[in-house]
Amino acid sequence: MLLFELNKDEARAFMRVISEFVSIDNKIKREEKSIIDKYISKLNVSKEEIDGLSHKEAMEVLNRSEENIKKMVYFELLGVALIDGDYENSEVDFLEEVAEKFNISRSLKIALANYYFDIDNMKDKSEEEAKERLIKILN
């Protein structure tokens, strides 16, 4: 998780988007709730701050961000989509909307998905090595 690079406005916007994303399939699973709680804690953002921002405003904030921030947001959304084992059409559509808005290329989307699918193969790697591999993909 490279979200420490987000400024306060980006953190609020990210949390608004991710909160909407987990509820898009009308069922928030335990794994999704757990990751949301971790994000809130790590980013030090309150529920009130998240609720005070509309989806449109959040996307505008994130769209003004640097390219690496946009890629990181997409990466985190993808991870949340995959965490519960269900990959619903509504989630795919949401990810496509974000990718289009942020100009995320098809090749980057595939590389990021492959990163998640290869996580089991990276168990013998250190957390730092896995992070370095992700940074390489994002750049």
Report what the structure shows.
- It is a single chain.
- This protein has 8 helices and no strands.
- The protein has 139 residues and is mainly α.
- It has a single domain, classed as TerB-like (Orthogonal Bundle), CATH 1.10.3680.10.
- The protein is globular.
Give the strand tally: 0
The main pleated sheet reads as:
none
Mean of pLDDT = 86
General shape? globular
| Highest CATH level, the class | Mainly Alpha
CATH topology: TerB-like
CATH architecture: Orthogonal Bundle
Radius of gyration: 14 Å
Approximately how much helix is present in the residues? over 70%
- The total domain count is 1
Uncertain segments are none
What structural category do the secondary elements indicate? mainly alpha
Portion of residues in beta strands equals under 5%
Termini Cα gap: 15 Å
Reading the helices and strands in chain order gives: HHHHHHHH
CATH superfamily: TerB-like
Q: Please, how many helices?
A: 8
Protein name: Tellurite resistance protein TerB
